[in-house]
Design brief:
With about 325 residues, the protein is α/β, with parallel strands linked by helices. Helix content is about 45%, strand content about 20%. The protein has nine helices and ten strands. Bound molecules: 5'-O-[(R)-(carboxyoxy)(hydroxy)phosphoryl]adenosine (KG4) and zinc ion. 5'-O-[(R)-(carboxyoxy)(hydroxy)phosphoryl]adenosine (KG4) binds next to helix 4 and helix 5.
């Protein structure tokens, strides 16, 4: 008998539902919340309300697109955390009541583990053990992945996440939220002519808060001399900041590869959609003899396919939870 998993994701500002049959993605639907743009960041209260509006239509659409009947679903996998508690509550409550009404089991999923397992949504799938650089709006981690459900964080940010570095830079430049994709776009027409320092952090950890401060001071100083500095140099500033963020990430993953001897290298999370990071990883991989794994765009940012994939491996191991399960804002991989 085939195994069909419904995945539900609602940890931040995207509401997503996906269907997976025997490990193959049948549908993956995402409702983005435009409402946060005007605030320059995700407003938890607004996000939670939008999830309430979006969740039923998104699940219905995912089932329709998959071309299945809801009675064919074997289990529901949902993001239990980490994330915004008000957002998580909507997905968790929906998953619990839907599972109860269908009489099927529930599977809790760690959102950060799911970003790593997004690599198993489609071929080529990495071989074990592999290293995954997970870079999102809330996290920056190097994960040593021994098997689907056995992973260990061997390096992480001490302050801001890589996505935050992009988003906070965007705010300083007067760009919309989330700024990562906008900076990526603008940087294509610019050159990395401004030099921002690379932080010297021991081991495999990261730090991005110093970069943010140096960008702030640089912009303040430059605007004093020329009030139109940002407008006149936007593309070059974007290219310079992006190139520094990418070099920080690539240098640490290279160090991790050297220290562990692992040559299977993957990237995951929203920032892995960045074109320079993708190109630089591929180029570095060729030079160093790695096999590199870069997810399709739809599996980089938050999506429910990765939740369903993680749910599938937990289903195979019989890892279910009861109706008493509650969301958690913090949860280690
Ligand atoms: O994984 P994700 O969708 O949500 C979280 O779990 O945080 O990541 C969102 C982050 C945001 O900070 C966004 O600016 C960044 O990913 N991002 C990008 C790009 N696309 C999304 N950053 C740089 N370049 C991109 N193309
Ligand atoms: Zn995420």
């Amino acid at each position: 008998m085939s195994i069909t998993i419904l995945g539900i994701e609602s940890s931040c500002d995207d509401t997503s539902a996906a269907l997976l049959r025997d490990g193959e993605v049948l549908s993956n639907c995402v409702a983005n919340q435009e409402a946060h743009r005007i605030y320059g960041g995700v407003v938890p209260e607004v996000a939670s309300r939008a999830h309430q509006i979006n969740i039923i239509p998104v699940v219905d659409l995912a089932i329709k697109k998959a071309g299945i009947d809801k009675r064919e679903i074997s289990a529901i996998a949902f993001t239990r955390g980490p994330g915004l508690i008000g957002s998580l509550i909507v997905g968790v409550s929906f998953a619990k009541s839907y599972a109860l009404s269908l009489g099927i089991p529930l599977i809790e999923v760690n959102h950060m583990q799911a970003h790593v397992l997004a690599h198993f949504a489609e071929a080529p799938r990495p071989g074990f053990p592999f290293l995954c650089l997970t870079v999102s709006g809330g996290h920056t981690q190097i994960v040593l992945v021994r098997s689907h459900l056995d992973m260990e964080v061997i390096g992480q940010t001490l302050d801001d996440a890589a996505g935050e570095a992009f988003d906070k830079t965007g705010k300083l430049l007067g760009l919309d939220y989330p700024a990562g994709p906008i900076i990526d776009q603008l940087a294509r027409n610019g050159k990395a002519v401004f030099d921002f320092p690379e932080p010297q952090i021991p081991g495999l950890d990261f730090s991005f808060s110093g970069l943010k401060t140096s960008i702030l001071y640089f912009l303040q100083k430059s605007r004093k001399e020329n009030p139109a500095f940002i407008e006149e140099n936007r593309a070059d500033i974007c290219a310079s900041v992006q190139s520094r963020i990418v070099s920080i990430l690539i240098n640490k993953i290279s160090q991790a590869a050297e220290e562990t001897g692992i040559r299977e290298i993957a990237i995951a999370g929203g920032v892995s959609a960045n074109s320079e990071l993708r190109a630089t990883l591929e180029k570095t991989g060729k030079e160093k003899g790695w096999n590199t794994y870069i997810p399709k765009f739809e599996y980089c940012t938050d999506n429910a396919a990765m939740i369903a994939v993680t749910g599938y491996y937990k289903y195979l191991k019989g890892e279910f939870v009861g109706q008493e399960v509650e969301p958690v804002a913090r949860w280690k991989v």
